[in-house]
């Protein structure tokens, strides 16, 4: 597996956020995108998912442009933005069911995934009773039930407490060990084996 | 196909759990129609004369009012991005959304319209045509309106833009809908007007979801 960006540039209005940005990611590796607020981290992630078109440059999945091979690419991709795509009036289990229908499923059951993120006790509670950290955990649970190789995550650790961050790190580690790939942004220190992590600094 | 039904089921369930907000359009519709006789005096012949137009205008404005929420929540919480990036078609999503939105907001209007028509002294013979015209017309209002909503969803302040954008396209529906009821109230056949509404209905049902899906793609990529 092979994911690559070549000479990307991005503009918001008249301001150039970044230009001639390139990287290459192999199976089992994580790309950590760092930068101050407004440096263009979220914009870059949206380019990488294919939601937005780059001003210049191209993004390749298995050596094919993600816009040409978008069906193949999308079936391998899990995207999580900084918002949680959850409905307040639905229970955790119902929300996870909806989220799981967006991506190819693996064999892990929804209940097991909720246990994994420590929400097993609250699976029938409506999400409006959840704290911000619990909502984030529920969104992360949707990654566990999907059979996708590439995770693109916008601040996955936002709103998580210490245990939550450790939980996320163990999920990420597991995913990388299974030859997955992760592209993520973060403001927190990331405790993962250094040989698996590439860093990319924006706005310097 | 199964994702389509599960989405409609999700929407209906959500609507049931937030009953309070969902009734707004219906209450607005009822209030406008019931306040009118108080405002202009309850002369039976006058009321019967204005009933078709009044009910249709109220239904149109109630539909327009309900449109704002069509994609807003899914846009803000990121569900729309998930759909766009999923292997499912965005057109199917739009279809399901429109069908459930019609069931939730417009069907109740159609159901109470006959009762309101009777309070306005509309001849009982015209009630069947009123029902039929609303059944054909309200989906058209929703389909056309959805294109406008999809275009304005990504904008921060769009409250007045939407009516400006879609009202011109609502005028034909209003003219043919109200005139169908009026003609049948005076004892003539309303077939012509109903056929035109049916034609618009088919056009909207088959073409609008594609336009809405393309517009949503633009909104999501902002």
From TrEMBL, chain A:
Pfam families linked to this entry: ABC_tran
Domain of life: Bacteria
Keyword ATP-binding: yes
Any coiled-coil regions, as ranges: none
Keyword Transmembrane helix: no
Alphabetized UniProt keyword annotations: ATP-binding, Cytochrome c-type biogenesis, Membrane, Nucleotide-binding, Translocase, Transport
Residue span(s) of domain ABC transporter: 3-204
Family matches, as SUPFAM superfamilies: P-loop containing nucleoside triphosphate hydrolases
InterPro entries: AAA+_ATPase (IPR003593), ABC_transporter-like_ATP-bd (IPR003439), ABC_transporter-like_CS (IPR017871), ABC_transptr_haem_export_CcmA (IPR005895), P-loop_NTPase (IPR027417)
SMART domains in alphabetical order: AAA
Protein name: Cytochrome c biogenesis heme-transporting ATPase CcmA
Origin species: Thiomicrorhabdus heinhorstiae
From TrEMBL, chain B:
Pfam family, one: CcmB
Domain of life: Bacteria
Principal place of residence: membrane
Transmembrane spans: 21-40, 46-67, 102-120, 126-151, 160-181, 193-216
Cross-referenced InterPro entries: Cyt_c_biogenesis_CcmB, Cyt_c_CcmB_bac
Family (UniProt): Belongs to the CcmB/CycW/HelB family.
Protein name, entry field: Heme exporter protein B
UniProt organism field: Thiomicrorhabdus heinhorstiae
Name of the gene this protein is made from: ccmB
